[in-house]
UniProtKB/TrEMBL annotation:
CDD domains: OMP_decarboxylase_like. It comes from the Bacteria. Keywords: Decarboxylase, Lyase, Pyrimidine biosynthesis. This is Orotidine 5'-phosphate decarboxylase. It comes from Allokutzneria albata.
Length: 285
């Protein structure tokens, strides 16, 4: 089943429109066993389905972007992937953009296969955008970048993540010019987005809790996904510290801080609305 016509507006333009209408918030759908337990659900396929589809019912008509974490669905095998397909389809039908958090990265034909799985019109797993890992080299992502461009979808490339281990790779200096690996990823994304309007479709993933790093986001011209709001402790001031004058392009993301208010649909929706209003206020320059 086709989930997105190839003639669609580019993802960057659709994201700008969604944020203008619904505010700058991305909510993760992370069916972690601890969250299922907190909702009084078993950590089985039934609990997964109820949790995920309740989250869609509560949020898809309210927030700009929903970000299902694929791993928690894959952990339940083929039946879990079938639930993920429903989440993608029903969230998009309700008006939310779907960013599928898969963090795929490989080379050659394998990267092409990943691209077809998540970015091709014919795939039931095709979302509006996906997360990608570039640490086999940014150029290894070309099959996904090209297919996303052809189908009007987006990608979010890991650049500077919040986990302490990330610094070992992302903070390393390139021998040819001394830039950090993270800055090189930022610059590669900027090159792909050059001239796009109102916003490019190649985004970056940058942790909201990383503090002042000296990274330069000024030329990215693409969305900056900022995990870490809420349960991980990041605030609006942290976003200003990390992103400086690029706040207009930041898409903060939260998960547990909203989903912990379940299992009631109204309670989850109200939590998302409060978070969206708070984040919108913190991002005003």
């Amino acid at each position: 089943m086709s989930t997105q016509p190839s003639s669609a507006r580019p993802f960057g333009a659709r994201l700008v429109a969604a944020v203008s209408e619904r505010g700058p918030l991305c909510v993760g759908i992370d069916p972690h066993p601890a969250l299922l337990e907190a909702w009084g659900l078993e950590s089985d396929i039934g609990g997964l389905e109820r949790f995920a589809l309740t989250a869609v019912e509560a949020l898809a008509g309210t927030v700009s972007v929903l970000k299902p974490q694929s791993a928690f669905f894959e952990a339940h095998g083929s039946r879990g992937v079938a639930v993920l397909e429903r989440v993608i389809a029903e969230a998009r039908e309700a008006g939310a953009l779907v960013l599928l958090d898969v963090k795929r990265g490989d080379i050659g034909s394998t990267m092409s296969a990943y691209a077809n799985a998540y970015l091709a019109d014919s795939s039931p797993l095709a979302a509006d955008a996906v997360t990608l890992s570039p640490f086999l080299g940014f150029g290894s992502l070309e099959p996904a970048l090209s297919l996303a461009e052809r189908t009007g979808r987006g990608v979010f490339v890991l650049a500077r993540t919040s986990n302490p281990e990330g610094r070992q790779v992302q903070g390393a200096a390139l021998p040819e010019d001394g830039r950090s690996v993270a800055q090189a990823m930022i610059d590669e994304a900027a090159a792909r987005n050059a001239g796009a309007g109102p916003l490019g479709s190649v985004g970056l993933v940058v942790g909201a809790t990383i503090g002042r790093t000296g990274l330069d986001f000024s030329q990215v011209n693409g969305p900056l996904l900022a995990p870490g709001i809420g349960a991980q402790g990041a605030t609006g001031q942290d976003l200003r510290t990390v992103f400086g004058d690029q706040l207009a392009h930041v898409l903060p993301t939260t998960s547990r801080d909203v989903l912990r208010h379940g299992p009631g649909v109204a309670e989850v929706r109200s939590a998302a609305l409060r978070a969206s209003e708070s984040i919108a206020a913190s991002l005003r320059v």
